[in-house]
Batch of 2 targets.
Target 1
Amino acid sequence: MGNIYYKGMKLGAFGLPVYLTENSKAKKANRKRKFYYLTFNSPFKDSSPKNLIVMYDIPDDKKKERDWFRRQLKHFGYIMIQRSVWVGPSPLPKEFKDYVKLIGLVDKIKTLKLAKAYQEKGLY
């Protein structure tokens, strides 16, 4: 007879949960701890001028950080010009820049201030 599970937890003979011991596969010391990245509130209005270009080159070994960074740029109202080139309002919040530095992305990101606000145009 196979193992019986209820809501993801293994059950014993009397239907009580079986708690894992040191030898179990579930928790090992060498496993990476789950890390959740912060979400910053957008200080910008929808009508804010888009006058900052953000370019980044974040490698594949930092995929989680790269995905978080993209989501955060969208949250700030940035629009993608190319895959790793975004334009949006400035300046980026200080707390956000400090956090980017903390997670080790500061040397992978470049910003350029535009003299005139970006105007989104159609293809034709």
Target 2
Amino acid sequence: MKIVDHAPVELLKRSLTVYSKQQGAIAENVANADNPNFRRLDTDFSEILQGVQESRLATTSARHLPGSTTSTIHLQDNEEERVDINTEMADLAVNQIHFEFSAQALRRMYSGILSSISGRSS
């Protein structure tokens, strides 16, 4: 097993990808807020979460985590919801906090690995 390929690192790297995709969806919503025909884009995280959970958790029944193990990101057009700039800006702030947390956690993990290899503490 490679040191940098263990589960927490992969989960954090995947979370950075998800938060980047969410950032793109929010940017698209903000850019089209004045377009009356545009419907709000949202990111569906259910398949990603399910794929991560199924690959990391031991279950005693197939019914515990039903569904496929695919981990694709779908941008869905929500017909009922128009773009609200205040909601988008709040979502942007929350998404930025999540992204920064994941990036810092990944940075700390890699720093720990580097310290272990070099024999120095930071």
